[in-house]
Structures are given as C-alpha cells and as structure tokens.
Design brief:
Length: about 140
C-alpha cells in the first residue's frame, strides 16, 4: 500500500520531481494536477497563519488506498499519486497533491476531481487553524 501522508508541506521540488519522472512514460497523453494550498483566511478578525494537520493515520491511509483503487477501477489511468500533509503547513504552502495520468486528458481531469472530492468527503484528516496571535480552532470544511 502506497503511503499518502507526509510530514510537513509538500515542496515545489517534490511536485516538479514527480512530473519529471513521468517524461519516460510515453503512453501518457495527459496529466491533471490538483494542489491544495493553505489560505490566510480571516476569521472573526483574525488571520490564519498555518494549519496543523492530524489524522487517524491507519484509517486515513486505508481510505487513501480505497480511493486510489476506486479511481483505477472507474477511470482508465496510467498513473496516480496522492500526498497529504501532516503537521504544520504555513499559509501559502501546499498541503494536498493529487496527480493523475492517462492516455487522454479528459480521463485525467475527471479522475483528479473525483479523487479530490473523495478525499474531502472520506479521509479522516483534521486541520487546526493557527492564527497570527497563536490562538487556534479546528477548521470547518466547506
């Protein structure tokens, strides 16, 4: 089972390296990428400076695996990567990286959206918003 949870922000270098590794796969015609980024939301006159992500790791990894398997069954994918952050991720940094590849772009787009929505709906990852004054609250998903 491929591990999806990573400690800290997902670096631009990790994203670039993942893309670069696919250049040798000449049966791919399209890629789709979703990058989830921490926003500096203003809530009750306080600005979010980071989110501290926690998870029921074993259950979360199982859900990521099931979502991955469902995507491969539903879509004709060549490749699929999912990474989600654990720990503190600052505003502006990447916390979710979904990367799908297929022979045709439409399949990659559709699969990427499906996976992203399934993650938000099913994976037990929780975010605690940390404000500039160091107060915090549990994030409410929209």
């Amino acid at each position: 089972m491929k591990k999806a949870l990573v400690v800290g922000a997902i670096s631009p270098e990790k994203i670039a390296t993942s893309i670069a590794h696919h250049q040798v796969k000449t049966n791919i015609g399209g890629h789709a990428i979703f990058l989830g980024q921490v926003r500096a939301d203003e809530i009750e006159e306080k600005t979010v400076k980071a989110i501290d992500y926690t998870a029921y790791e074993e259950m979360a990894e199982k859900e990521f695996h099931e979502i991955r398997e469902a995507a491969f069954e539903k879509y004709d994918l060549t490749c699929l990567h999912i990474y989600h952050s654990l720990g503190v991720v600052k505003a502006g940094e990447i916390c979710l990286f979904v990367f799908t590849s297929s022979k045709h772009r439409a399949m990659a787009f559709d699969a990427c959206r499906f996976i992203t929505e399934e993650i938000k709906a099913k994976v037990p990852v929780f975010g605690k918003e940390i404000f500039e004054d160091d107060s915090h609250q549990w994030k409410k998903n929209s």
